[in-house]
Amino acid sequence: MIYSTLVDCATLAAHLDDARWIIFDCRHQLADPAAGEAAYAKGHLPGAVFLHLDRDLASPLNGCNGRHPLPDPQLLAQKLGAAGVSAQTQVVVYDDAAGMIAGRLWWLLRWLGHERVALLDGGLQQWLKEARPLSTELPESVPAVFEIAMRALTVSTGVVQANLTGGDLCVIDARSPDRFRGENETLDPAGGHIPGARNRFFRDNLDADGQFRPAAELRREFLALLAGVEPKQAVMQCGSGVSACHNLLAMEIAGLPGARLYPGSWSEWCSDPARPVAC
Description:
Blueprint (H helix, E strand, L loop, with lengths): L5 E2 L1 H5 L7 E5 L9 H8 L6 E2 L22 H10 L7 E5 L7 H10 L5 E4 L2 H7 L27 H10 L3 E4 L3 H4 L17 E2 L15 H12 L7 E4 L6 H10 L6 E2 L3 H5 L10
Parallel strand pairs: 1-5, 2-3, 2-4, 4-5, 6-7, 6-8, 8-9
Helix pairs in contact: 4-9
């Protein structure tokens, strides 16, 4: 069986010794970039490989490409291959942040053409809640060849800007409602949102236990948000192209595939003061 959206803890636990399954730990704190790797060293899911949001899942900043530009596909493919990921590998990603960071790797793998990737539903918290083991051992990876089959899953700033007058796309912002309104902005130099964007806080995809809500509920809410726009005309964004991937995953779970990512998101948009801002 192929898992392409979510996998539960029991299923993953049954495959911990399966060489065809590879786990990635994506823990990260925006305010403390070293925290995730330190937490990994203290204890991680058995066999998990650590990938860092800034070093591995993003490329260098140049001041106008957002806070987490997409990584170079070839470099990321090399890292995935070094960890043992091939076309037949079932990848599982997790974090301790409601899937906010791990969702980025889920999307990146799909961007590179790898469908066998799922997010651990409930993340590290659910794993520990079920009294499952952690390890401090570093995995011994068997290198593989990761072949790229790029998919057209992104839109540029130019496309988003042209949409201000065209209006064919539905831009959905995954940030919290206060940041969407331009309040309590601490990460980017300006507050507000892209004119015409609609707000869907990524945490609204989860239930009280931090697991994804039923597909039918997600579908109903995203269809209401799209208001007649086809899913393939939806563009997901957030502050830097990370939590937006959570909404992309939720739409896949809801059976609404085809939405794309604006990678630079708000941090790239607001880097140019000539671009309009709404609050």
